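Lecture notes, part 5. Sequence design as translation. It can be helpful to think of inverse folding as translation between two languages: the language of shapes and the language of residues. The source text, in structure tokens, appears below.
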């Protein structure tokens, strides 16, 4: 287990070290949920366009996906594992590149940002597969969104990987629930 933690820290410093002054503010704002409101608006529009008066079902499933990924990561895992974020880890915090003094909360395992992004990405991709090319871009967004957390020094890559896996699971689960409900009401 120590080997994995050491490797995670080494990869973190490699990725966190890829910073530039001009990129700092881009990453700082790219990590904020509010920055992506136009993307969420587009997804809501596409759901309503494709599902009409039944669009409340997939929209409710998206909310469920975000709720469950957030509860698992922030409500259960972070307080249970109590793994410090790099910005709070006594052995490394002085070496971490941060932006605007942002350090995040005390604990970071697993990443809620990554879980939410990958959950929404997979759910939307499966739901709106008729727009395959455009929906594939959601995974690039989710990866970039996850990377902003490493860039800003508030997550180790392992936090992002586990958060992503949780998001993918709940994105798939909510997609299955969506299909089940849609099938039952037909």
């Amino acid at each position: 287990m120590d080997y994995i933690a050491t490797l995670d820290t080494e990869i973190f410093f490699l990725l966190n070290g890829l910073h530039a002054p001009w990129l700092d503010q881009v990453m700082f704002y790219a990590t904020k949920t509010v920055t992506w409101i136009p993307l969420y608006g587009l997804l809501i529009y596409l759901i309503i366009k494709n599902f009409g008066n039944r669009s409340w079902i997939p929209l409710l499933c998206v909310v469920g996906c975000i709720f469950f990924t957030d509860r698992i990561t922030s409500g259960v895992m972070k307080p249970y594992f109590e793994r410090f974020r790099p910005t709070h880890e006594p052995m490394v915090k002085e070496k971490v590149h941060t932006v605007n003094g942002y350090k995040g909360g005390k604990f970071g395992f697993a990443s809620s940002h990554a879980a939410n992004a990958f959950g929404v990405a997979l759910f939307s991709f499966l739901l709106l597969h008729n727009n395959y090319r455009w929906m594939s871009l959601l995974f690039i967004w989710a990866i970039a969104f996850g990377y902003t957390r490493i860039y800003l020094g508030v997550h180790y890559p392992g936090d992002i990987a586990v958060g992503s896996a949780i998001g993918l699971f709940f994105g798939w689960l909510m997609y299955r629930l969506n299909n089940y409900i849609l099938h039952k009401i037909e």
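The translated text above is only one of many valid answers, since several sequences can fold into similar shapes. Helices lie at 2-16, 21-30, 37-51, 56-81, 112-127, 132-151, 157-185.
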